[in-house]
C-alpha cells in the first residue's frame, strides 16, 4: 500500500509517497481503508523532528497523522467489537506506534480507538473530529470546573479552541474566549459568552470580564505562563504542549496528553454523538489530494487556516 511519509526529518518537502506492506490487524485491532485524514499541528512537529525522541530509535519511514475517517476492511482475531468490514468509522491514531499514523491507504488501530462516523457527516468532515475534540474533552475533565463556573479559551478560532468552547458551554460553563477581529463572529457563533481581542496580554482582558479571575484556562494559543494572571487563586490551566510551570497562587497546571485517552471508547462515542447532533461543529477548511500533503503543511505553517485541511485518500488504489 501507499502512505504519505518521510525517511528524514525536515520541512514540508520531505513528505512523499512511499510503498510499504499492508498492515495486519492483531488481537483487539481493526484495519481501516482510509478515505480522509486531517492535518494537525502535531503532524508538523513529527515531520520536523521536534519530537523524534518519541520514536525511541525506531527507523523510518515515519507516517504522520492522528485523525482518520474511512471504512473498516478487516477485524483482528479475538477482537471484541461491534464493528464489521464495510462499516464507516472515524478513528484517533497514534503515529509514534508501530503501525504509524493516519496518512496512509490503510491503518490499523485498537478497536477501542474507532467509532461509527457521526450521523450526517461525510469522510472529510468526520476526519476533523476526534483528536482535537478529545483533547478539549480531556482538558475540561482535568480542570473539573463545576457547572456555573467560568473558563477562558485561548486560540478559540482553532480546532481545539472551537471544540473547547462548545464542550464547555455544553457542560454549563460561562465561556470567555479570544479572537482576532476577523474571527470574532465565528467564535461567538460557536457559543462563547464574551470574546476579547487575542494577544500576549489577553490575560488582562479576561480579568476585566472576570475581576476575581476565571476558574480555569484552556490554552489553545500556547501562551502558557502569559495567561496565568487571568486565573483565580487555586484555579487551573490546561496546556497542550507539555508546559509544566512554574505557577504560583495555588494554580494547577494540567498538561493534556491526548494519546493517553485514545482508547477511551466511551469518550469517543460521546464525541461522535455530539457531532451528530450539532453540539460540535465539524469545520473543513479545504480538501486536498493526499499526494499534496506537503502543500497542506505549508498552508498550515502560513497560518490563518480556520477549520482543518484534510487529505483525500479515495484516489489511492484499493
Write the layout of secondary structure elements.
Elements: E1 2-5, E2 16-19, E3 29-39, H1 41-48, E4 67-75, E5 88-92, E6 106-110, E7 114-116, H2 123-126, H3 130-143, E8 150-154, H4 159-170, E9 174-179, H5 184-190, E10 194-197, H6 202-209, E11 214-219, E12 231-239, E13 252-255, H7 265-276, E14 284-289, H8 293-302, E15 308-312
Parallel strand pairs: 8-9, 8-11, 9-10, 11-12, 12-13, 14-15
Antiparallel strand pairs: 1-2, 3-4, 3-6, 3-15, 4-5, 5-7
Helix pairs in contact: 3-4, 3-7
Enzyme class: oxidoreductase
Protein name: NADP-dependent oxidoreductase
Organism: Streptantibioticus silvisoli
Summed up:
The protein has 318 residues and is of the alpha/beta class.
**Principal-axes shape call:** globular
Structural domains: how many: 2
Using the 3D structure, state the CATH architecture of the largest domain.
Alpha-Beta Complex
- For the record, what is the CATH homologous superfamily label of the largest domain? Medium-chain alcohol dehydrogenases, catalytic domain
Q: DSSP strand (E) fraction?
A: 25-35%
Domain Enoyl reductase (ER): 10-311
EC number: 1.-.-.-
Enzyme class: oxidoreductase
GO molecular function: oxidoreductase activity
Amino acid at each position: 500500500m501507499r502512505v504519505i511519509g518521510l525517511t528524514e526529518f525536515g520541512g514540508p518537502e520531505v513528505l512523499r509517497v512511499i510503498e510499504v506492506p499492508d498492515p495486519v490487524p492483531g488481537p483487539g485491532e481493526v484495519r481501516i481503508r482510509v478515505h480522509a485524514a486531517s492535518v494537525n499541528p502535531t503532524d508538523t512537529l513529527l515531520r520536523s523532528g521536534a519530537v523524534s525522541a518519541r520514536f525511541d530509535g525506531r527507523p523510518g519511514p515515519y507516517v504522520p497523522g492522528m485523525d482518520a475517517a474511512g471504512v473498516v476492511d478487516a477485524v483482528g482475531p479475538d477482537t471484541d467489537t461491534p464493528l464489521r468490514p464495510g462499516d464507516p468509522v472515524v478513528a484517533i491514531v497514534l503515529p509514534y506506534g508501530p503501525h504509524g499514523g493516519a496518512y496512509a491507504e490503510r491503518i490499523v488501530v485498537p478497536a477501542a480507538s474507532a467509532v461509527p462516523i457521526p450521523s450526517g457527516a461525510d469522510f472529510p468532515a468526520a476526519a476533523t473530529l476526534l483528536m482535537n475534540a478529545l483533547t478539549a474533552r480531556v482538558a475540561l475533565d482535568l480542570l473539573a470546573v463545576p457547572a456555573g463556573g467560568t473558563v477562558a479559551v485561548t486560540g478559540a478560532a482553532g480546532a481545539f479552541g472551537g471544540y473547547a468552547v462548545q464542550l464547555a458551554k455544553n457542560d454549563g460553563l460561562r465561556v470567555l474566549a479570544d479572537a482576532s477581529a476577523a474571527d470574532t463572529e465565528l467564535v461567538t457563533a460557536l457559543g462563547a459568552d464574551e470574546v476579547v481581542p487575542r494577544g500576549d496580554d489577553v490575560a488582562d482582558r479576561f480579568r476585566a470580564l472576570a475581576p476575581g479571575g476565571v476558574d480555569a484556562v484552556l490554552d489553545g494559543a500556547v501562551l502558557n505562563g502569559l495567561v496565568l494572571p487571568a486565573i483565580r487563586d487555586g484555579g487551573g490551566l490546561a496546556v497542550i504542549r507539555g508546559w509544566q510551570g512554574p505557577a504560583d497562587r495555588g494554580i494547577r497546571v494540567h498538561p493534556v496528553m491526548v494519546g493517553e485517552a485514545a482508547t477511551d471508547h466511551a469518550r469517543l462515542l460521546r464525541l461522535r454523538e455530539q457531532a451528530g447532533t450539532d453540539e460540535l461543529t465539524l469545520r473543513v477548511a479545504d480538501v486536498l489530494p493526499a499526494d499534496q500533503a506537503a502543500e497542506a503543511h505549508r498552508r498550515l505553517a502560513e497560518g490563518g487556516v480556520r477549520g482543518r485541511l484534510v487529505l483525500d485518500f479515495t484516489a489511492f488504489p484499493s
